[in-house]
Records
---
Amino acid sequence: MSKIRVLVTGASGQIGYMTFKRLLEQPDRYEVYGLDVNQAPSERVPGSWNLDLPGDRFSVCDLSDFEAVRAAVESMDVVAHLGADPEGDEWDSVLQNNIIGTYNVFESARLAGVKRIVAASSIMVSQGHRELEPYKAMTERRMDDIPDEFQMISPDIPARPTGIYGASKVWSESLARVYSDTHGISCICIRIGQVERDRPRPRQGADIYVSQRDIVQVIEKSINASADVRFDVFYGMSNNDYRWVDIDHARDVIGFIPQDRAENDHAYDSPAS
């Protein structure tokens, strides 16, 4: 079986670095390449991690530089597009990194004949739902206000971003649909939850938490998804007690089974009785 040639954008960032590391540890399965504005790991990467990123497999460039992105994507089977502005506070940065940069990746993939793009979306696409009941009650752990039965937020429910970062991720999902339907590229978008660098963490994020190994699992399973998965959207989330998004769809389609839950990983306080 031939190796899968994978380019990881944002390879020096937290999620990109974890993914790059995981794939690099399986040389019999993957030939992995990285791309980022710097080769040195970002401050979001735990200092204890020590991964020597090979220079001949790493492109140092900005996602807004189309020609540089085009060169990096050439001859790849899969692009794991994990690069973006993670803060999303300034429009100019969101425009260059999340809008123009994402277009450059998708268009370069089309020109290079890439078979699949696995694109990082975000829970921020659905953040507005978190501010509505009963999801707000789950976030705040108001036990008496959580009904016995309610509808989980699934990818089929309309997006509800609350800022330009989330809106840019809605756009990237729409772009993925265009490149799947129009150009025949298999496109999988992952709405990534809150990934923490260290533990324990504040209780407020327990509902949207995803462990490091769970997010890497869903990314790798998306890379290896069946060829008949032409377009899909999954929530990348651990199996948290107060989770309000659907992860069953990812289990059914790609076999994603979270290994963790926020309440185990973080020593959150129990809700008041």
---
Amino acid sequence: MRNLKYLLLFICLCCNFLASATTVSCTNQAGVTPIVNQLLPYSSSLDSLTAPGNPSQYVALYTWSGFEWGWASRTVMCSPDISVNYLQYVVPPAGSVPVKDTVSGNWIFPIPGTGFGLSFYNLDQSNGPMGNFQNPKKSYTGTTTSGGRFYIRVMLWKLPGAENPGNVINFDGFQVVNAIQPVSGADSWGNVPNNGPSLISNTFTTNTAVISGNITLSTGTCDFDNKNVPMGSYDVSSQGANRGAPSPWKDASFTLKCPPAMGYGRTGSVNSSNNTVSSRSAVTTKNRNLNITVVPRTEIIDNTKGIMALNSGGAEGYGIQLFWNPVKPVIFNTPIEQATNAFTVGSTNNIIVYMSARYIRTEGDVQTGPANAVVEIIANYN
């Protein structure tokens, strides 16, 4: 009988440690704004940047040092107080699928249709990059009354391999979320206010920042005057039976007139009391090198050899071949990099690009006549 008493006592003691489920309800505190709208502050004159035209990797253009969009514990009041994980994540607009940059470690969210992107980095407690709801940042574990500072660094990026469609970046609809999730899976939420998206199971969103931007970068696109290259007359009858010899090279060089090279990699120091930029750093990276693309207006005959067709209605059986210097063939519709020294910040630059052209035999019967063709040159800073 004595052993039975000990056994019953042990069972009762164990029962005292069984977890119980808690339902938590929350309300917004008076005078708070749980959902804030944040236009990223940018001055075209004070923050001027020239983005690289076609980078091979993600390039950081501008950093906003840190926005403060509230505190969870000062925004909501929850009862009873429980242990929670503080989570931060981004809900991007449609068409923006985040990519993890292996160099910087940031999740970069493309701004649809622009060739640029944004990243978000939590600065409260356990710092780190923020992904979407599938890859949230856990800043720390506490209670519903223990803080939850919503303090985020934002960066503007140039996407790799993306041509710059323009120097104006307009966007909205990026939602940055501050949420809490019970540590115990048995706990759940009762009545809570709608303070923004809630995409992670059993979370309550305490704060949301809706991000928009209207940013005008300094253009990095170069101009040049239209140029006629006199190819001269070419007597095909003197080129042998197959008329296969090309004509002598003609100089087709041109001068690019490039706008002020403002560089990139600037940081704006954000005054967290009003979320405006109070000062700016100098750029960390100067523009250097040019991306040059040659776009033919006629058919490409052999892209590996830089051969394009002549305009229709004239000579036949020949094309025009373009070479750089002439050392290597022009690859049409593909940016090539012309090396230059780093450009002085704010400098305008005239760059001579050396190119050569000649007639070359292609397929089909030979027909004499006008032998003309047109190409378009696209050039911008790298």
---
Amino acid sequence: MILIARSVAGDALGFATISFAPFAWTGSDIAFLQDLFVSEAARGLGAGAALLNAVYAEADERRAAQVYWMVDETDETLQRFYERNGIRTPYLRYMRTPWPW
């Protein structure tokens, strides 16, 4: 699912991509925030927080047990944004092979 943040004039400011999947621990779905992007011109104006709140609202409407996402450990700006709007967890992330970049 793609959620789009728009200005009053209708211009796209950013988007969030989320997916839902069954979660064995709770028996209900869990929401994964795959991408959250805000255009440079719209950063700092609340579009990111509005998108994240829309993600939370969609998850609540679908009765998802949780919303989760990942952040690059070197992106301190993005970490600060998410720490204002979420909870840092102690989980580690593993993957089959490293990203090519």
---
Amino acid sequence: MRTSLLIGGLVVAATAALEIKAEHGAPKPRRGPYVGVAVDLNTTYQNIDGFGFSEAFQRAHAFTNLSPAQQSDVLDLLFDTSNGAGFSILRLGLGSSPNSTIDHMNSPQPSEDGPFKWDRDDSGQVWIAKQAQKYGVETFYADAWSAPGYMKTNGRDDQGGWLCGVRGQGSANSTACQGQSFVQAYAQYLAQYVKAYVDEGIPISSVGFLNEPNVIMKLKANSKPYATMQSNGYQAADAIFALSVALGGIGLPKVGISCCEAQGWSLAREILSEVQAAGAETALSLITTHAYKGTPAAPDGALNTTLPVWITENGPQRLDLSETWYRNNSGNEGLVWAVNLHNALTTGNVSAYMYWIGVGPSSRDAPLIWAPNPNANGTSGIWASNENKTLSVSGTGPGFTVGAPYWAFAHYSRFIRPGAKRIGINLDLSSVKPGTVLASAFKNTDHTIVAQVINNGDQDAETTFSVPGLVGHQYCWVDATVTTNDKKMSFYQTAEILEENKGNPKPLPARSLTSYIVRCSPGKK
């Protein structure tokens, strides 16, 4: 039995489990590549907290480019666990700017002598957070790119600069800081920000205070500088200790603190070692990093910490949105993102992965879903659409475009749920080229088992799928969904798993991502 839901011009398939017997008898001779997949229930790795995205930099306003019906469709695509990606984490950007020009996020306290004034909108993020809650999203991660300018050595929230009062360049005795320290003031500012969300009914699980602290966005012609603040790990430690006190003082001691949103994996390793040397790691709940300049890769492996590690931001660099699953391994193709997710989860042992922009008004952001302003054709600027696409917001056609990376994230996010545990997986790859097939496996809290298998080769591969250790169950079955250039999350029934715990699914298509979902029942379904 198969059902389909038409969403905004896209067909998203769903399936009800059917009993399909695995074929028995003499195996057929293999004529091409073969992959044997065996899940190892006895080997365990990290816990999974979830997958998500951000609507920072005012990108949440892109939803206003859609009709109410299309907004509903896009929200389903993002958060629905049956017919969408089932994203479970929303990353919120905490503002520091005196205005909302271009990529700036306005501050609720833009001047030193002004009150903290909450606008209950926060660049559209309150609305999207409340929509996410309706779908059961519980994890909201808040991060500030910078302190407000009056707290910094350069007097502005962009173009780098240090927080006044931290050791080194931010010393209160420096000429720029004129004897003032704003470390505690910044901590209290962030604590008030978190409390404002809590008062809206949006619980913040953890808060960060830096974003790519090695980056200085200098003002150049035609540039769009955004908020940045410089820091090393020792300086970050000063802020960590102060933020811990501030959260406790405002009645939010259970809100975690994260650090340090480095631009890439090697930079994260460096700044983490400094935080550890300063004795501040014990005050943290998360280690956060981006994956622009350096991703988890052998031989470096995971970061040296026992805390959960989240990749809180990554996206294609200087590439527009693409609907292509695979062509030439460009950074905006879907299969590339399947590999990115695999490497982060297996080599990096990350517990969460967030794409940069979920829904955005410009294809130049390469968002997961592009929702352009239908009235901006022929104009310029961030809200403009000049890519010559045919648009409709009348409800008769899609007013949005789904990018290929969405489908990679949907495979992982829909089936690997918060609280899952990564488990072992063994592969027989004797007849395929090294590195062609990648696989990972997970066990959810509801005992479903998920295997993600990537065939990055240019040939289909015959396959067998087994889960040793399920003998105690009377009945188990496997559903699967595959994405290729021609199919987007196309569901099919693979096989019933009998006593030998082995099913004979369809071949792995070339350039594909296949999700196997194993469910067991004490009796017949």
